[in-house]
Amino acid sequence: MDIYEDSRTVSRSDLAAWLRQLANQLESDGRLFYGAAGAVTVADTVRCELEIERESETEVSVEIEFSWTEPARVTVADEQEPAKDAEAAEPAETTPEPAS
């Protein structure tokens, strides 16, 4: 499932600035910002791939790819379930009635 994709023609200088911006984001808090308000948090350890390929006599491409696995998300229902079990396991407290 694609989250975001952008394709454009830029100068080599602008490309370098964009790569520096990405590097700064990774180094500071690990979030990459995209689009108007999107961001994705990059894991501390990632799998990296660099591919340089001659597409034709006149075209060369460079692809930089990195990926990671996000930890499983815990839902609110998952967090509350053990608490219900713990309450059921404890005996109900009763107050003895005074003797007459």
TrEMBL record:
It holds the Pfam family Amphi-Trp. InterPro entries: Amphi-Trp_dom (IPR027598). Residues 89-100 have a biased composition (Low complexity). It comes from the Bacteria. Residues 71-100 are annotated as: Disordered. Residues 4-73 form the Amphi-Trp domain. Coiled coil: none annotated. This is Amphi-Trp domain-containing protein. It comes from Micromonospora parva.
